Amino acid sequence: MNVAQVTPVGADPVTPWANDGCSRIPARVYTDPHIYARELERIFYGRHWSYVGLEAEVPDAGSFKRTAIGERSVIMIRNRKGEINVLENRCAHRAMQFCQERSGKVKTLVCPYHQWNYNYDGKLLGVPFQRGVKGQGGMPTDFALEDRSLNKLQVAVRNGIVFASFASDVEPFEAYVGDEVLKYFDRTFDGRKLRVHGYSRQRIPGNWKLMMENIKDPYHPGLLHTWFVTFGLWRADNKSELKMDAEGRHACMISRRSETLDKDVTQGVSSFRENMKLNDMRLLDIVHEPWWGQPTVCMTTIFPSVVLQQQVNSLSTRQIIPVSPDKFDFVWTHFGFEDDDAAMTERRLRQANLFGPAGFVSADDGEVIEFSQDGFRQDPAFETLCELGGTDVGDTDHMVTETLIRGMYRYWRKVMEL
Amino acid sequence: MLPVERRAELLDLYSAYAACLDDGRFGEWPDLFVEDCHYRVVPRENYDHDLPLSTMELHGTGMLRDRVYGVESTLFHAPYYQRHIIGIPRILDYSDDEIAVEANYLVIRTKRDQPSEVFNAGRYLDTVVTTQQGLKFRQKFCVFDSELIPNSLIYPI
């Protein structure tokens, strides 16, 4: 290990970058605890919007869901006016994470330690023995309930999807996402009521950014994933587009399934199985839905915390919750629409076999991320090479490029000042 | 009470099931099911809230064979051993040709160069039926408590 490159404890991180570019990413970006601490502060707790959940998960006043932004525990709860609040799960008294259930419905939020009691807006309603007992003890005279609310985050709800931010000066959600990516956000989430189908949770032993990169990397799906290349769901000859916001932090990978095969893209590709036939074709019973338009797949990354998936009839949000520099939790929420008929719901659920921790095309994404992390760990001087399609950043009408990863790192370097 | 002989046959089915997976004889795994079977690996969270999503859900032995092909041929993964510890089956109900069974299970995973670890803990909710080739599963739901899958789940549970 090169000692000169390691950040001393308590100091600001030193840039691990060898140059001004964003196409060669140093291993320490994935392993250094000081860099990770700054990411939490500037990215997850800074002026960014993080995914929290779906409005459909909290249908009534008092319905809540507990989740996390970065390493901070938060509660999404609906108030009596029907609005969504996101409150930090930390009692104003002794910092207790008072909410331990993952979801449910409550009359008020009560911290069991000393029964401090909050309403759905996070306002402190009362504390036991505020005025003492028989003239003894009690809170000081300057104690005021209104000074002791739960930490209330900024909230943006767009067509049923809930985002939150710890920063009071964060830009409006729509400006944050940008027109181009917002168009694809609205393609799936156009205001139709959603129906939650369930959750999958996995802990992936890799840095959180590796998952963002995986869904900004159109190079791998037609190589790593036999199902994608063999059944044409994602292949280099598909008509595709890559689009970013102006900052390069968010992106969409949009593509159209091929019915015909260009032999150039399967020549020598070891994962391609020309004669592979499914015993049960119901796993790929694809029915075109009018709202798709031409594309059959759109994978959207909203930096830093969520992937929005439409891959044929399967829909999910995939939330990234960092746990440490070398670990994150990946939470899948699969959904359909309230007006889906029974056959469509069944179809979405069957196609869910392709995705999630056991998925025919997703299980191996977790595996490759783990082994990349292992590779970073063994040599801090290593840097990755993301120069497919050049070293610049820009939208493309093909998928033979790593431009989206470069876009993210161009932004990352700016916000991290590293 | 379920007659002792049928109970013994049932125990044989569960021990054969564990041995098949733990030996890595995945190609033989579908043979332990009837043709129109229903196999699910499902988080307890979803199961308890009547949410239909499974981690893996296969209908019929054709889909089971497609999964086996995935395991053996298309899914890139680090290899690992599985060791199933299955508790004594609890008979929930039975008739002449069908037994409803619940059984706790624990799957230990051992990856190359790594210590063994608890990989998945849960219970089977099964329907076992009598066939001319002996007892087979018509339904096997693996409802797991484990809140987080340690990265990926490749082999059947």
TrEMBL record, chain A:
Which terms in the Gene Ontology molecular function aspect does this entry carry? dioxygenase activity
Question: Which cofactors?
Answer: Fe cation
* Protein keywords: 2Fe-2S, Dioxygenase, Iron, Iron-sulfur, Metal-binding, Oxidoreductase
Q: Which domain of life is it from?
A: Bacteria
| Record-linked SUPFAM superfamilies | Bet v1-like, ISP domain
Q: Keyword Iron on this protein? A: yes
Q: What is this protein called?
A: Aromatic ring-hydroxylating dioxygenase subunit alpha
- What does the record give as the organism's lineage? Bacteria, Pseudomonadati, Pseudomonadota, Alphaproteobacteria, Sphingomonadales
From TrEMBL, chain B:
User: Which intervals hold domain SnoaL-like?
Assistant: 4-138
Name the Pfam families for this protein: SnoaL_4 (PF13577)
Q: What class of enzyme is it?
A: oxidoreductase
UniProt keyword annotations, A-Z: Dioxygenase, Oxidoreductase
Which GO molecular function annotations are given, in alphabetical order? Answer: dioxygenase activity
- Keyword Oxidoreductase belongs to the record: yes
Enzyme Commission code(s) on record: 1.14.-.-
Q: Which SUPFAM superfamilies match?
A: NTF2-like
Recorded hits in InterPro entries, A to Z, give: NTF2-like_dom_sf, Rng_hydr_dOase-bsu, SnoaL-like
Q: Which domain of life is it from?
A: Bacteria
Q: Which Gene3D superfamilies match?
A: 3.10.450.50
Which family does this protein fall into?
Answer: Belongs to the bacterial ring-hydroxylating dioxygenase beta subunit family.
State the protein's name.
Aromatic-ring-hydroxylating dioxygenase subunit beta
Instruction: Look up and give the organism this protein is from.
Output: Sphingomonas natans
